[in-house]
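User: I'll paste a sequence; please echo it back and then give the predicted structure.

Assistant: Echoing your sequence first, then the prediction.
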Amino acid sequence: MPLRINCLKIDVQTSGPVFGTRLEFKNGLNIICADNTKGKSTCVNSILYALGLEGMLGASHRVPLPAALTHEILSDDGSKFEVTDSTIQLEIANGNGEVVTIRRNAGGSQMQRQLVHVTFGAALSQELSEDVETRVMHVRIPNSARAQLGFHSFLAEFLGWSLPEVKKGGGTSLLYLECLAPFFFVDQLNGWDAIKSRMPTHFGIVDVALRSFEFILGMDILDDETVRRRLESMLIAIESDWRSERDEFKRQLSGTGIVDRGIPGSVTDWKIDSEVNLWTYENEEWQPISDTLEAAKKQLSELTESTIPQVAEISNELVTRLRVAEDDLAAAEVRFERDQRTVREMEYELIAVQKRLDALDDNLRQYEDEHKIRRRLESNPLDVSHGECPTCHRPIKDALIDQNSPANPMSLPANIAFLRDQRQMFQKMRAESSVLLEVKKEERIGLRTRLIEHSTEVQSLKRTLRQDSEAPAAAIVREQVILENRITQLQTSLDTFDDPTAKFSAISREYVEAQEELKKLGARTLSKVDESKLKFFDEVHRDQLKNYEFGSYNTDEVTIDWSSYQPVHGDLPLGLVSASDTVRLVWSYLLGLSFVSQDAQFETNHPGLLVIDEPRQQNVKIENYDEFLKHAAKAAEQGHQIIVASSQLTDIESLRKQGAHVKEFQGRILRPLV
């Protein structure tokens, strides 16, 4: 859906008069003509700023506008006035005929500049009713591309653009509008370098020039790439969910005396026939909780089925059981103390492993830094021969140990490889030690439970032996109560952690399904339509180069590479070209995209807008510049809006006859408003 600029209005409040200008733009080719330093770039950059696209120029939040809008403005008679505030308004339209007017402050605090007032109507070209809606949105702050009140979220929707998810670092990101802007906006200071070199890389988007080109031309390969990014993000999210579920499950088990067996650290290690087993520490060994429960139930059943004897009947047996219970209690106390010491030792060992890892990381960083210096010095033999770092003036050695040592030291790369192996080994040790420590802690909980049970049994047996000889044996009753409590505890644990295998199997299936979808995509390939678009682009790009008298290479040998979408010479990247030929390449490239998007056989996302500041750069011949303007007029005739700011026009009347709308200024464009 096209983007049209209807009107630009700039107001500058000063210590004296109010300065400003109002520029109306038509469909087709629009030319702002004025001498240098009279405000052309101010107008062009004001369009960029009003749209919140100045992030195209770099990460800085500095206003990309001259002092005339931020600090001090000059009148035509040379008088100077301090700027107290300035406002930019821009009326834009989309292909559905919807019109909004944007207002953004160029002065004030950064917070004020991050607000965009959007009026839903043609506020600059029409009188609007008082009840027309105005909405305040934000720009140049996190989430402005996604949030409901984010201006770029609104602008993308206004243009009918569904911005794709693209790869960014280890995750994904929207393809921001600032990354697309270099294909339809050329500023004077930075815009006349090669297309790829002026793409905004500070967003961290991988292959930003390729993804932006693919979106502008609406290429099918980007749809596949978007699906690929979605699936890759899904795999990362599922892996994260797996770790979260696993950690939460282990947190719930912590302190219960129960451990799990069968849940790997990564979802990729889960097998189809895998299952989660819960184990408890019983009789000085780990056994499945289900076995422990069945044994306790069987023992309780045997007790309840028999008659509770009197004390006199089993006095000898009680004495024997008391001795055994006292021995068991003493052994449990010894075992518990021993395990307490073991846990402390394992904790100390884990701390030592972590310290060793920290030391290895420090050493590795030091060696890698030294290696970086060495690699950079390899291209400067003189510095290497001095044996000194040109930055910090430290001696450069092949190793970080004493050079007088009789041993033959390893080289820096060998040291780095060794340290990385060591780090990997200690990381594995840390992981294994952590698991063993957790198991030991749960084992200690089981021992503490048994210790309490043995102590209770000894006390119960002693009380029973002091009972009346004809009374029922309380120790037997007590044993039944302990078993009932134990069974209740085990059954509650089983009910609480009901079927964890099903939960982890479901996560694993989701991961496998996403992996299979990703495999079906296969390698990146161009569709037939993509190839047709690139062939057409290649032709119009090369034809323009001929017309502009590109001279660094034979134009018949300059083509558009299908993998980088950049001009190449033969099969090799385009080497050094003259500064003027770089300008010709930019002309051909940007107008070439316009011509492709205008062809009826293709659907693209090109906005149908091209804003160019001072296209005659690097002393390009005036004849070539005139040829460029003819091509621009031709592109504009077919439905695009092209805005050119220029100080050099040879024949304005001829341009007007070609349909160009030329706005000439004598003196400064920003002038006192009456």
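Residues 258-509 form one domain. The radius of gyration is 39 Å.
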